[in-house]
Write a structure and sequence with these properties.
This protein is mainly β. 6% of the residues lie in helices and 43% in strands. It is built from 1 helix and 6 strands. The protein has a 6-stranded antiparallel beta sheet with strand order 1-2-3-6-5-4. A hairpin with a 2-residue loop joins β4 and β5. The protein starts with 6 loop residues before the first strand and ends with a strand.
Length: 67
């Protein structure tokens, strides 16, 4: 995780508003100085096509959110 040291783990009510998932893991994956991209794992793997400020690209069980 040294390449992407900033990650966020949400559970319970803080996660359930995110597509009804019991927990969510978000890893900041910036590209360049102003990049705000993220790798996201939804427990239910119910990723929308767009939302949360960008577009989702499914990568196995994860999604890449490009903003």
């Amino acid at each position: 995780m040294m390449a992407y040291p900033h990650y966020y783990y949400k559970t319970g009510p803080a996660a359930s508003y995110i597509e009804g998932n019991p927990w969510v893991l978000r890893v900041a994956a910036p590209r360049g100085a102003l990049g705000f991209d993220e790798l996201i794992y939804f427990t239910l793997q119910n990723y929308p096509e767009t939302g949360y400020g960008g577009k989702f690209s499914k990568m196995h069980d994860w999604a890449y959110l490009s903003q």
